[in-house]
Amino acid sequence: IAGGIISSEIQDIDSGRYKKARINLNYLKATRLMGRDIGRNRMKSILSSLGFMILGETENELSVEVPLNRVDVLREADVVEEILRIYGYNNVKIPAKINASVSPGKKPDRAKLQTLISTSLSANGFYEIISNSLTRQDYYTENPDFSDGKTVQILNPLSRDLGVLRRTLLYGVLEAILFNMNRKSFDLSLFEFGKSYVLTGKQSDEISEKFKEENLLALALTGKTQKESWTGQTGSFTFFHLKDHIERVLRKLNISSGLFVKDDCVPAYFDYGICYYHNDNQLIIAGKVADRLLRRMDIDQEVFYSEIKWDLLIDIAGQAKTTFAELPKFPEVRRDIAMLLDKQVAYQTIEEIAFTTEKKLLREVSLFDVYEGANIEAGKKSYAVSFILQDPEKTLTDKVIEKTMQRLRAAFEKEMDARIR
To answer: Which residue of 2, 6, 148, 367 has the fewest CB atoms within a 10 Å radius of its CB?
Structure first.
């Protein structure tokens, strides 16, 4: 056909290079794996019809040689699978009793806790999203928070949009928000469980040493809190709605938010925000996404975003202990204090001072009013704070209550230069 000339006879240069696998099949183990005794003769007949050579047989075992075309048959269980495939899975009846060994699992159960949080967020109006781990390199080259050269590059990217591995879930969340907004869905509550990837900077032949993979939980709010209705006005999501959902996640995992130090934290992609720390390790960041980033993504409404280090949170949840106490028999008492403070003083400071000053009777501190403006001097703000007092052993008297409130007022005046109003 093509004018070719035969130069020599066919030569087999690989003769003897490949050897047929030999496997011993235990009859009792085969019966246990299949869930039914089909008889030894039936097993040998099926194997022979599939090209397996019977090498020998003892009282308990059958020795077979696997044909070369069956490269996937390498162990005893594979031989059992071949037998059962021909015999028919539907011919194995479901037993009336199933025996299983119970092995202790690792605590806490990560999958169970993730399901718990997913269910809780869904019950509070969130929708789960799943973003691609491959993303655009421009996101990180243009963001000063990621200009440290630790972004994981793809050696042979399919496109510019899939050139690097993500270091944060933020951009995937923003892409999902833009996708929904382009389809007239503006009011969104989203969450995502995903991984981030970063270079460690270590020179090592071990992949696990060169790269760091971290599990994260992202929360995002944008738009209105509820649909328009004649029954009342519709408000927009704020940073404090996001903070409330973060606190709810912590409570769901039996973690007290009071264990964490909260500090001002404003990465380049936030206009403002806060961080939660645990033992000097950053656990959570939360804030309002910077307007310049939103404009770049063609998003024209505020977005509030939080990113939680899920691995660290699970470790803390595993250390948390559940305690039980008898319900109090004596009534609680509420007292309010209005105070004038410098603008930079955070409410967290008030809580810390209050619980440090009164450790026995103070049960709860709550901020119920903040005022700035007319009749308040520049650089000042007015806080109205409620305090819940309770003694588990007796009813509180007016004398004890007043003495406690005097100590609190004195502490606020000394520690924060507060003026009690």
So the answer is: 2
What pLDDT is recorded for position 301? 94
Contacts of 34 (CB under 8 A, 6+ apart): 80, 83, 84, 87, 92
Q: Is the dihedral of CA 33, 34, 38, 42 positive or negative?
A: negative
Tens of pLDDT, residues 2-38: 999 988 888 887 766 778 889 999 999 999 999 889 9
Distance in angstroms (rounded) separating the CA atoms of residues 78 and 64: 12
The angle subtended at Cα 247 by Cα 243 and Cα 253, nearest 5°, is 150
